[in-house]
Design the sequence.
């Protein structure tokens, strides 16, 4: 018997399988983008918010269940159009009690203002898959100009659905008081940072 060669072969096979399993199907290559109209893929799209909590910690939570559209052509990136809507009631933190408070009239008032919406007005492509997206953000019944720094993550055929998919990461900063959300400003920062993980699927 030659256990060492057999063991080496087994380890090599395991390594190869692991490599295949962990390799990403999407590539951060704009040429992989299929031009067309896309829809938000809600199961893999999240908005994470972060605020300073009393100076002790950065407190985070997220919103989900997004809907919206993306019109994109890799040959004309500046002509890209984006519209995304997030239901406020989807807000989720580490505290169910806090979730209820954030949905209440004291904070985001989800009953009166059930959604937050961002609609692009200008896209400025940059180097290395970066772009600045200017648009209008509607939150708490107030619409104001906003900017989002976007990083192109990748594009390709989803290995499960076989549908062309595009992914982006976005960063946006805002002052909540500008949208009429002023509760506990002395304890919770006015400054809010948003991190957006967005996936879009090509429509037929």
Sequence:
């Amino acid at each position: 018997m030659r256990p060492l060669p057999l063991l080496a072969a087994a380890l090599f096979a395991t390594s190869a399988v692991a490599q295949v399993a962990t390799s990403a199907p999407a590539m951060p290559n704009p040429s992989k983008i299929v031009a067309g109209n896309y829809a938000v893929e809600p199961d893999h799209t999240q908005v994470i918010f972060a605020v300073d909590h009393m100076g002790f910690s950065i407190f985070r939570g997220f919103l989900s269940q997004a809907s919206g559209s993306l019109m994109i052509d890799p040959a004309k990136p500046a002509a890209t159009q984006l519209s995304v809507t997030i239901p406020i009631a989807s807000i989720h933190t580490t505290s169910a009690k806090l979730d209820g408070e954030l949905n209440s009239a004291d904070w985001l008032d989800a009953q009166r203002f059930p959604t937050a919406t961002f609609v692009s007005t200008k896209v400025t492509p940059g180097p290395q898959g970066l772009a600045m997206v200017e648009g209008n953000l509607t939150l708490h019944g107030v619409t104001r100009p906003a900017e989002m720094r976007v990083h192109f993550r990748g594009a390709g055929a989803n290995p499960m659905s076989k549908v062309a998919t595009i992914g982006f990461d976005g960063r946006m900063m805002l002052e909540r008081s500008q949208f009429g959300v002023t509760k506990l400003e002395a304890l919770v920062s006015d400054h809010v940072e948003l991190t957006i993980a967005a996936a879009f699927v090509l429509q037929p």
